[in-house]
Amino acid sequence: MTEWCGWPVVDDATTWENAQQILTDAELSDGLPLVPPTRRRLEAMVAGVAARSDSHGMMPPLFGDITPDAVAYQCVIAGCVPAELPVVLAACKAILEPDFNLLGIATTTGTAAVALCVHGPIARKLGMNAGTNCLGPGNRANASIGRALQLCLRNIGGARAEIGDMATMGQPGKYTFCFAERNDGPFPTLTARRGLGADASAVTVMGISGTAEVLPGDGEGATPEAILSPIVEGMRAGIVMSSTHRKNERGEQVFLLPLEMAEKIVRHDGWDLLRVQRYMFDQGQLGGGGVARSADAIHPILTGGAGYKMTYLPVWGGGSETVTRVV
Q: What highest taxon heads this organism's lineage (predicted)?
């Protein structure tokens, strides 16, 4: 049997069952079936990639070397197609930013997971889901890209249970947590807000402790206040549950807003993104402490299908900043 970056390469003739056992024995499995990493699949994944063995950094917690070849191996076993390798590689580089605090996220006893949002033309080219059930099953690109990133954390970074990953409970998002941002909403995209262009191909990585469904205060949300106030209350609750209320500093907040809710908000005069952020920041200040360090540290991301259910993504209480990088 040959190797690729020190990991096993299986023959085309290897049975599915034997391939799964080989990968499990090599401690490469996340517990779900893996695509057998044949030489043909691996070479196809890196075809046309330059400097395949060049290092893009060392990934905590055990500081494995991030190279295109190493990331390509995880992409193959996760079920990615070659066009998805640049997205996963960009995400791997993004999580190495010091402010993201990957070492803390990877080793905490808490439920932190790395969530990935993909923006712009690359998301549409890959057929990613930014509509109905965008956080759930059914879309291969969302599932495989997110899984490849998690396998990089496990197999390159060494975040395996009781070795690097010390999570008491963990969470399902540590299998895969990946979605796309819509580009058809009334608010500027996250890439536009961060100076990368309104329709840039990019990724945003987030250290997230879970998800929480939030409903408007009056059912379908007749006013911006009715839509946004329950999210602020969710942020307050998240701060208490994560014990960050004991800290003087506040960080960022992220929530997912369906198109229907965003359009309801902007139907009211003067309600644009800046007013949304300012309202939520001011409401969060009531009673002391606050929910974010500033108004522009509150990040609504437009995604999802029809309906008025919103999703709050609490940023890990141990301390992490979201990072956006061009693909």
A: Bacteria
Query: Does residue 10 register a pLDDT over 90?
Result: yes
Contacts of 272 (CB under 8 A, 6+ apart): 187, 266
How many CB atoms within 10 Å of residue 43?
13
Q: Which domains does the chain have, with CATH numbers?
A: 210-326 (3.30.2320)
State the Cα–Cα distance between residues 46 and 37, nearest whole angstrom: 13
d(CA 117, CA 123): 9
pLDDT of 221 higher than 90: no
Identify the helix (H) or strand (E) that includes residue 273: helix 273-285
313: left (phi over 0), alpha (psi -120 to 50) or beta: beta
Looking up tokens 């956006």 gives: 324
Q: How far is CA 285 from CA 106, 136, 210, 272, 297, in A?
A: 31, 33, 23, 20, 14
Separation between Cα atoms, residue 78 and residue 37, nearest integer Å: 10
Name the packing angle between helices 259-266 and 224-241 (round to 10°).
120
Cα–Cα dist 90/37, whole Å = 22
Amino acid 205 reads V
Taking the C-alpha atoms of residue 309 and residue 305, their distance in angstroms, rounded to an integer, is 9
pLDDT of residue 254 exceeding 90, the answer is yes
Contacts of 197 (CB under 8 A, 6+ apart): 120, 191
Query: Distances from the Cα of 86 to the Cαs of 46, 80, 295, in angstroms?
Result: 10, 11, 32
Task: Decide: 98 and 57 in contact? Cβ < 8 Å.
Answer: no
CA–CA distance, 259 with 263 (Å, rounded to integer): 6
Closest of 274, 272, 252 to residue 324, by C-alpha: 252
What is the chain's length? 327
Residue 105 has pLDDT above 80, yes or no: yes
Is residue 212 within 8 A of residue 239, CB to CB? The reply is no
